[in-house]
Structure prediction request, 124 residues.
Amino acid sequence: QVQLVESGGGSVQAGGSLRLSCTASGYTDSTGCMGWFRQAPGKDREWVGSLYTPGGYLVYAASVRGRFTISQGNAKTTLYLQMNSLKPEDTAMYYCAAKRGTGACSSGAEFPYWGQGTQVTVSS
Prediction:
């Protein structure tokens, strides 16, 4: 059974940085992808970026490209989201998700496994 637990959220001023972590169990050796999504109050869930496993290929949404970086810990059990140059519009609940198999890694509907989320608040 795949379990995902996010941590690292918090409040920061615009221009600041945060690093989110997602600890995964039951997924380490899978072929598929792990992704970050976010959802702001009153808005649809938005894809942030994904890492294809096990190859490590990365893809990002245009809204965060160049500011956010996804990486994986050496043991492949932790997924990170380094967020720099944060803007108030980055304020949202951030979720880690995972899926096995091939196919698109940017659609939330394709991901069966989700963490509980961690809140990120960016003030101006």
Notes: The mean pLDDT is 94. DSSP finds no helices and eleven strands in the chain. The longest strand covers residues 92-100. Residues 13 and 106 are 28 Å apart (CA to CA).
